[in-house]
Amino acid sequence: xxxxxxxxxxxxxxxxxxxxxxxxxxxxxxxxxxxxxxxxxxxxxxxxxxxxxxxxxxxxxxxxxxxxxxxxxxxxxxxxxxxxxxxxxxxxxxxxxxxxxxxxxxxxxxxxxxxxxxxxxxxxxxxxxxxxxxxxxxxxxxxxxxxxxxxxxxxxxxxxxxxxxxxxxxxxxxxxxxxxxxxxxxxxxxxxxxxxxxxxxxxxxxxxxxxxxxxxxxxxxxxxxxxxxxxxxxxxxxxxxxxxxxxxxxxxxxxxxxxxxxxxxxxxxxxxxxxxxxxxxxxxxxxxxxxxxxxxxxxxxxxxxxxxxxxxxxxxxxxxxxxxxxxxxxxxxxxxxxxxxxxxxxxxxxxxxxxxxxxxxxxxxxxxxxxxxxxxxxxxxxxxxxxxxxxxxxxxxxxxxxxxxxxxxxxxxxxxxxxxxxxxxxxxxxxxxxxxxxxxxxxxxxxxxxxxxxxxxxxxxxxxxxxxxxxxxxxxxxxxxxxxxxxxxxxxxxxxxxxxxx
Length: 502
Ligand code: DPN
Ligand code: ZN
Known about the structure:
By secondary structure, the chain is α/β, with parallel strands linked by helices. The chain has helices spanning 49-54, 58-72, 76-79, 89-103, 179-188, 223-236, 285-302, 324-331, 335-340, 371-384, 401-405, 423-429, 453-472, 487-492; strands at residues 109-130, 139-140, 169-173, 193-197, 217-221, 241-261, 265-275, 309-316, 341-347, 358-360, 390-392, 410-414, 495-496, 499-500.
């Protein structure tokens, strides 16, 4: 075990285990030390996009990525490989690294931990046999309970689940309502398990979302593997099946870190975030070491400047468990605090090895007004650099989700996860068509070598541009409207992080 104590500290308190505990090198040359002493704010020049962009250096980012990998190794005792998953020493070390880096800047930032409960699931073993077949696509849903027919509809009404289901396994089509709702109805009807089959092509990588006592063990299977079973069911009404899952759902306390400039109009904040955690499988250096270290570097460089508007940085925890930290933050903001956030910018996966320059296609039609102005800021910047860019769906795959649902304009950039690069994109960005944008996505090999430094440095400059632009002025940026979750977004978002929930 590493010598690390869990920390919950108020801003300014002494740190018990700082980054130096781990032999982590701070990039001193990147401007950590020459901080303007407290009370001399006026002596700092007003931030400009050019100055902040110029301060971004690939070597500083790389140093931080290496630090993060060393921190991920703290997870080895428990996981046998580097990881920064919540609850691990790798994640606690990440939080200490971020916190201690920002704490050095004294009262330039108001720095806080926000603790919240994160519900996590673990499936140690499972087996599903339907008829004589073992469906290859069978995958237990995240947050499925352990194990404690038939329903041909989408199963979104209790009446879709007949009494005959008691003691049996429900087979339900995907669609219309969440997987969690289906599992709950199946449980209430006495089913011992539920299988949701895809209503479109492919496998179902789903999550049940917020746990309920009525949830039953739930699997997803592909449309192709469901088709013959449905045929049999149409003929014979029942098919023999065996389901087994050994799983656990538990609650871990973890923390978001939020740092806000003490200077700048506190009623008009530009907010940005990346996630501090990784999946259990690996160290998460691109996902989202890239975004979270870009934020740390920009928060460092920003201390050389003064700002007109408040700048608020967030490092979310438990993104990989379903955007839990950002959801908690956005959904618990009092109305008055919600109104102070002019926009939220999401920075998750900025240096994928087989990258594309992706911009979330966040329109004002489907999202809070201002989202599109942010989208266009990214467009203008890539165009000004003579670079190509691609719009990608704004459908709930990262931490912007809670903000949009809370009525706050949002957007962001990314470089791609498990998606496959097209021929056109190969022409636009180089790399390799047919391969994933990030071939190490959610795997052990997401290490320091899994970051394309050109893409990461360039995107970090764009992040710097976005921060500096709004730190100086919101001129031309739409005023905040009252909180009203956007219906169009709610209808189109089908992801909650990397998992489908509907
Ligand atoms: N939210 C990312 C993850 O943490 O798995 C994946 C992702 C990022 C997907 C950005 C699309 C865009
Ligand atoms: Zn991520």
